[in-house]
Amino acid sequence: MLESLSLEGKSVVITGGGTGLGRAMVRDMARAGADLVIAGRRTGPIEEAAAEAVSLGVKATSVATDVTDSSQVATLMQTCLDQFGKIDVLLNNAGAVSDNVRKPIWDHTDEEWDRIMRVNLTGAFYCAREVSQTMVNQGHGKIINVASGFGLRGGREIYMYCCSKGGMIQLSRVLSFNLA
Asked: Is the whole model's pTM more than 0.90, yes or no?
């Protein structure tokens, strides 16, 4: 996918980079030459992802981060600045779904709603807020928010996920109006 893309000399922060789509993005970014700061809640997977990136010839570090905690997000971004002197790309990939995603609306709890919204939308907002002034001061930077088609079209009995990803799409639009 990124065979012709060179990210050599670029620094990239990837949230949710330990498993799944995030791990695949770590591989692709490393193959393209980007130096990486890989964030996730669980230390083991992000350490493994960082080791894999290093084996592909780039600099990489892992930072255990709960994106729903703005102080941890601040530490994450500062780690990238301390290690690489800049942040070229923020890739907001951290995400969550409820344990039993497809169920009637009346069966969802307040706690499920809060968790999904905080991880999928508030976390992306915290990361974008934390990095945006740095990118403006640098005169460059990209914020990539990983959303979903469900955020545009909805889906049967996927209430919280659809709403959170729809919010992320709007966050992306508003960021582009104000920062691009």
From this structure: yes
Using only C-alpha atoms, what is the Rg of the chain? 16
* CATH node for 11-179: 3.40.50.720
Residue 126 bears catalytic tag: no
Query: What single string gives the DSSP state of each residue in 70-139?
Result: HHHHHHHHHHHHHHHS---EEEE------TT-SS-GGG--HHHHHHHHIIIIIHHHHHHHHHHHHHHHHT
Catalytic residue, candidates 32, 124, 161, 162: 161
Classify 118 in phi/psi space as left (phi over 0), alpha (psi -120 to 50) or beta. Answer: alpha
pLDDT at 60: 99
Boundaries of every domain in the chain? 11-179
Tokens of 159: 């209430």
User: Is residue 5 predicted with pLDDT exceeding 60?
Assistant: yes
3-state secondary structure of 43: helix
- What tokens were used for 172? 């992306």
Between the alpha carbon of residue 128 and those of residues 17, 115, 170, the distances in Å are: 17, 19, 13
In this predicted model, what pLDDT tens digit does every residue of 28-83 receive, in sequence order? 999 999 999 999 999 999 999 999 999 999 999 999 999 999 999 999 999 999 99
